[in-house]
Amino acid sequence: MSHANSIDHYIEELRRVTADTSDEDQIIARVGPLAQHVVQHKDWLQPKHYETDSDQGFGVHLLHEEPDHTLAVFIVAWLPGRGTPPHDHGTWAVVAGVEGVERNIRYERLDDRSRKGFAQLSVKHDFLADPGDLVSMKTGGIHAVLNETDRVTLSLHTYGKHINHTNRSQFDLESNAQKAYLLTVE
Ligand SMILES: [Fe+2]
Predict the structure, then answer these.
(1) Separation of 133 CA from ligand 1 center, angstroms?
(2) Rg (CA), the chain
(3) Distance 12 CA to ligand 1 centre (A)
Protein backbone atom coordinates (compact mmCIF):
# COMPACT_ATOMS: atom_id res chain seq x y z
CA MET A 1 0.00 0.00 0.00
CA SER A 2 1.33 3.43 -0.84
CA HIS A 3 0.82 6.58 1.21
CA ALA A 4 1.00 10.25 0.29
CA ASN A 5 3.50 10.75 3.10
CA SER A 6 4.49 9.32 6.44
CA ILE A 7 1.90 11.44 8.29
CA ASP A 8 -0.95 9.81 6.37
CA HIS A 9 0.49 6.42 7.24
CA TYR A 10 0.92 7.52 10.87
CA ILE A 11 -2.75 8.54 11.13
CA GLU A 12 -3.82 5.15 9.78
CA GLU A 13 -1.63 3.44 12.37
CA LEU A 14 -3.01 5.64 15.17
CA ARG A 15 -6.55 4.65 14.18
CA ARG A 16 -5.54 0.99 14.24
CA VAL A 17 -3.91 1.25 17.67
CA THR A 18 -6.82 3.09 19.30
CA ALA A 19 -9.33 0.70 17.69
CA ASP A 20 -7.39 -2.23 19.21
CA THR A 21 -7.13 -0.89 22.75
CA SER A 22 -8.15 1.90 25.09
CA ASP A 23 -5.41 1.00 27.58
CA GLU A 24 -3.16 4.07 27.75
CA ASP A 25 -0.01 2.10 28.60
CA GLN A 26 -0.54 -0.01 25.49
CA ILE A 27 -1.41 2.99 23.32
CA ILE A 28 1.72 4.86 24.42
CA ALA A 29 3.93 1.79 23.95
CA ARG A 30 2.70 1.34 20.39
CA VAL A 31 2.48 5.01 19.34
CA GLY A 32 6.00 5.88 20.51
CA PRO A 33 7.88 3.87 17.85
CA LEU A 34 5.44 5.07 15.18
CA ALA A 35 6.11 8.69 16.16
CA GLN A 36 9.86 8.04 16.06
CA HIS A 37 9.47 6.74 12.53
CA VAL A 38 7.60 9.90 11.50
CA VAL A 39 10.30 12.21 12.86
CA GLN A 40 12.98 10.23 11.02
CA HIS A 41 11.16 10.49 7.68
CA LYS A 42 10.37 14.18 7.41
CA ASP A 43 8.64 14.13 4.02
CA TRP A 44 5.77 16.03 5.65
CA LEU A 45 7.87 18.91 7.03
CA GLN A 46 7.13 22.33 5.52
CA PRO A 47 8.66 25.80 6.06
CA LYS A 48 5.43 27.00 7.71
CA HIS A 49 5.97 24.49 10.53
CA TYR A 50 8.87 26.64 11.75
CA GLU A 51 6.58 29.64 12.29
CA THR A 52 6.40 30.74 15.91
CA ASP A 53 4.02 32.86 17.96
CA SER A 54 5.87 35.44 20.03
CA ASP A 55 2.91 36.03 22.36
CA GLN A 56 2.65 32.36 23.23
CA GLY A 57 6.37 31.53 22.99
CA PHE A 58 5.80 28.76 20.44
CA GLY A 59 3.83 28.11 17.27
CA VAL A 60 1.34 25.25 17.24
CA HIS A 61 0.59 23.71 13.84
CA LEU A 62 -2.21 21.19 13.55
CA LEU A 63 -1.39 18.31 11.19
CA HIS A 64 -4.42 16.20 11.93
CA GLU A 65 -7.45 15.67 14.10
CA GLU A 66 -10.47 13.42 13.65
CA PRO A 67 -13.89 15.08 13.30
CA ASP A 68 -14.56 14.39 17.01
CA HIS A 69 -11.19 16.01 17.92
CA THR A 70 -9.54 12.67 18.79
CA LEU A 71 -6.09 11.70 17.43
CA ALA A 72 -4.70 15.21 17.26
CA VAL A 73 -1.21 15.62 15.82
CA PHE A 74 0.72 18.89 16.01
CA ILE A 75 4.10 20.27 15.13
CA VAL A 76 5.21 22.75 17.76
CA ALA A 77 7.96 25.29 16.95
CA TRP A 78 9.59 26.67 20.10
CA LEU A 79 11.23 30.08 20.27
CA PRO A 80 14.68 30.27 21.89
CA GLY A 81 14.41 30.93 25.60
CA ARG A 82 10.68 30.23 25.71
CA GLY A 83 8.48 27.34 26.77
CA THR A 84 5.34 26.35 28.64
CA PRO A 85 4.23 26.55 32.24
CA PRO A 86 3.76 23.16 33.90
CA HIS A 87 0.61 21.63 32.39
CA ASP A 88 -1.34 18.45 31.88
CA HIS A 89 -3.14 17.33 28.72
CA GLY A 90 -6.44 15.76 29.77
CA THR A 91 -5.57 12.81 27.53
CA TRP A 92 -2.55 10.63 26.67
CA ALA A 93 0.40 12.36 25.02
CA VAL A 94 3.37 11.19 22.96
CA VAL A 95 5.98 13.84 22.07
CA ALA A 96 8.87 13.08 19.71
CA GLY A 97 11.77 15.46 19.10
CA VAL A 98 12.18 16.62 15.49
CA GLU A 99 14.89 19.28 15.54
CA GLY A 100 17.02 20.71 18.36
CA VAL A 101 17.18 19.87 22.04
CA GLU A 102 14.18 20.54 24.31
CA ARG A 103 14.27 20.48 28.09
CA ASN A 104 11.43 18.49 29.59
CA ILE A 105 10.57 18.77 33.26
CA ARG A 106 8.17 16.16 34.62
CA TYR A 107 6.22 16.90 37.78
CA GLU A 108 4.25 14.91 40.28
CA ARG A 109 1.22 16.14 42.16
CA LEU A 110 1.65 16.32 45.95
CA ASP A 111 -1.75 17.59 47.11
CA ASP A 112 -4.89 15.48 47.50
CA ARG A 113 -6.81 17.38 44.75
CA SER A 114 -9.50 18.39 47.22
CA ARG A 115 -9.07 22.17 46.76
CA LYS A 116 -10.44 23.53 43.50
CA GLY A 117 -7.89 25.67 41.66
CA PHE A 118 -5.05 24.53 43.93
CA ALA A 119 -2.23 22.14 43.07
CA GLN A 120 1.14 21.45 44.64
CA LEU A 121 3.80 20.02 42.35
CA SER A 122 7.33 18.75 42.73
CA VAL A 123 9.88 17.96 40.06
CA LYS A 124 10.09 14.25 39.30
CA HIS A 125 12.42 14.20 36.29
CA ASP A 126 14.33 16.90 34.42
CA PHE A 127 16.02 15.93 31.17
CA LEU A 128 17.03 17.04 27.69
CA ALA A 129 15.20 15.46 24.74
CA ASP A 130 17.10 15.09 21.48
CA PRO A 131 15.58 14.56 18.03
CA GLY A 132 14.02 11.08 18.03
CA ASP A 133 13.63 11.00 21.81
CA LEU A 134 10.17 10.37 23.24
CA VAL A 135 8.30 12.01 26.11
CA SER A 136 5.12 10.05 26.83
CA MET A 137 2.45 10.72 29.42
CA LYS A 138 -0.81 9.11 30.42
CA THR A 139 -3.84 11.26 31.27
CA GLY A 140 -2.91 13.39 34.29
CA GLY A 141 0.83 13.45 33.55
CA ILE A 142 2.29 16.93 34.12
CA HIS A 143 5.31 18.48 32.43
CA ALA A 144 6.84 21.70 31.13
CA VAL A 145 8.83 22.16 27.91
CA LEU A 146 11.60 24.72 27.54
CA ASN A 147 13.79 25.62 24.58
CA GLU A 148 17.06 26.71 26.18
CA THR A 149 18.95 26.71 22.86
CA ASP A 150 19.52 29.73 20.60
CA ARG A 151 17.49 28.31 17.69
CA VAL A 152 13.88 27.38 17.01
CA THR A 153 13.29 23.75 17.98
CA LEU A 154 10.58 21.47 16.60
CA SER A 155 8.70 18.55 18.12
CA LEU A 156 5.83 16.31 17.03
CA HIS A 157 2.99 16.09 19.56
CA THR A 158 0.32 13.40 19.39
CA TYR A 159 -2.65 13.37 21.76
CA GLY A 160 -5.67 11.16 22.33
CA LYS A 161 -7.74 14.30 21.84
CA HIS A 162 -7.08 17.88 20.70
CA ILE A 163 -5.83 19.58 23.86
CA ASN A 164 -8.11 22.59 23.48
CA HIS A 165 -11.01 20.13 23.91
CA THR A 166 -9.89 18.25 27.04
CA ASN A 167 -10.43 20.83 29.79
CA ARG A 168 -6.77 20.54 30.75
CA SER A 169 -4.81 22.68 33.22
CA GLN A 170 -1.73 24.80 33.67
CA PHE A 171 -0.03 25.18 37.02
CA ASP A 172 1.75 28.07 38.73
CA LEU A 173 4.56 26.75 40.90
CA GLU A 174 4.79 29.89 43.05
CA SER A 175 1.12 30.47 43.84
CA ASN A 176 0.08 26.78 43.54
CA ALA A 177 -2.74 27.93 41.26
CA GLN A 178 -4.35 25.55 38.79
CA LYS A 179 -6.24 27.08 35.90
CA ALA A 180 -7.42 26.35 32.36
CA TYR A 181 -4.78 26.10 29.63
CA LEU A 182 -5.80 26.81 26.04
CA LEU A 183 -3.46 27.23 23.07
CA THR A 184 -3.46 29.43 20.01
CA VAL A 185 -3.32 26.94 17.14
CA GLU A 186 -2.41 27.78 13.53
FE1 LIG B 1 2.65 19.11 27.02
Answers:
(1) 15
(2) 16
(3) 23
